[in-house]
Amino acid sequence: MGTGTIATEHMVAAIRTAGHQPRWVVSRNKEYAKLFSQDMQVPNTSLDARRALHDPFVKFAYVSAARERRRHYIVAAASERKHVLCDGPIAASSRVAAGLVEQCRQAGIVLALNQPARAASPHQTMRRLLQEGEIGTLQLLSIVRGAPFQSSPTRHVEEGETKGDILLDMSIESIDLARFLTGQEPVEVSALSSGPQGMDADQLSYAIRMSNGTLFQALESFAAAEFESTVMLAGDRGTLIAHGTLSGRAPGALIRRLYGRNELIPLRDRDPYITTIEGFLGATQKSATWICLGEDSVVALRTAEAIAAVRKKRHLPIAAD
């Protein structure tokens, strides 16, 4: 449902690799649906989501629509009791997202999110090594990424995003990744940005105290020259550092630092989109383990909203002598 770039470049192929065949393209634009159907070799098109969802061969829906249309498609899938995998975030606010989660719960369906950061092999390995005690007790999580602003590539010109939209999405992704890696919940936030409007800025820096006392620090920047993203877990015995894992272009590398020495950790080279589809399909059969669910999206949205609010309302300028 929807004809976005992620669906085109990644998810259709991932669905097929996982052993399923896309049957319908649903879009509010007839021409977009037709072109997507031809490009991706999907047999059926419709402007009406329920027509596709009535198909008895349809087992789940993948939603790749613009953010403001995701609610419509999720509600339609819930009414037909079809599981949903959706690009994140599922809504523009935590209040709307919580309502969608409740509708899906009442319908008895899984609402999951396509969060490639969770599925990335370096991040899954970091999580496992942390759980196994390889770096001791976690003290600090840091996520840093930056590049000159460039709207995400889209199939349709009118779908271009603003800096504020992308910074918000980046923050939501980082918050979700922090919860995934640490198994902890956000408790308290503080934030600064390069402008007075919170998310509408070139740079955003924030800190979150997590539920077990871990400090989570993040910097997301469009003002700095492009540099390799870094995700760091620092424990009281050692550190895990993932480089280049948030660029969307390469799998990145993972280093473990113990006793003053760096060790490159071998990684299983897996496509994060195929991993996401497999994780989603597994969640429809049994309890989910690592996949991002609707409830996770609500927490990430609520935390991002708190970051925006604290940046606008709670700051203390330093007085000059």
From TrEMBL:
GO function terms (MF aspect): nucleotide binding
Superkingdom, taxonomy of origin: Bacteria
Gene3D superfamilies found in the cross-reference section: Dihydrodipicolinate Reductase, domain 2, NAD(P)-binding Rossmann-like Domain
Pfam families for this protein: GFO_IDH_MocA, GFO_IDH_MocA_C3
InterPro entries the UniProt entry points to: Gfo/Idh/MocA-like_OxRdtase_N, Gfo/Idh/MocA_Oxidoreductases, GFO_IDH_MocA-like_dom, NAD(P)-bd_dom_sf
Domain GFO/IDH/MocA-like oxidoreductase residue range list: 123-240
Signal peptide start and end residues: none
Residues of the Gfo/Idh/MocA-like oxidoreductase N-terminal domain: 2-113
Listed name of the protein: Gfo/Idh/MocA-like oxidoreductase N-terminal domain-containing protein
Organism: Paramesorhizobium deserti
